[in-house]
Design goal:
Elements (H helix, E strand, L loop, with lengths): L10 E3 L2 E2 L4 H10 L6 E8 L2 E6 L2 E6 H6 E2 L1
Antiparallel strand pairs: 1-3, 2-6, 3-4, 4-5
Length: 70
């Protein structure tokens, strides 16, 4: 399942990132978003969602949320 379908407040483990864009992969890696890391959806908004990765909170858009498989 992708992050867009994940429940709010529940912790998931990132299985993989499905994107062909190396720049996007590098950006996600810099946030701590890579396979094996826990991620939690804090809240949903019209254009995306707020997630918690490690000690940070980030607002990501729907396209990016669909690329993160949990």
């Amino acid at each position: 399942m992708n992050l867009r379908a994940a429940e709010e407040g529940k912790e998931y483990i990132i299985q993989r990132i499905e994107t062909d864009d190396e720049e996007l992969d590098a950006f996600l890696f810099s946030l701590g978003c890579y396979s094996g890391e826990p991620i939690t959806v804090i809240s949903r908004q019209k254009g995306g969602c707020v997630v918690s990765i490690k000690d940070g909170r980030y607002n990501i858009d729907n396209a990016l949320a669909k690329a993160i498989i949990v």
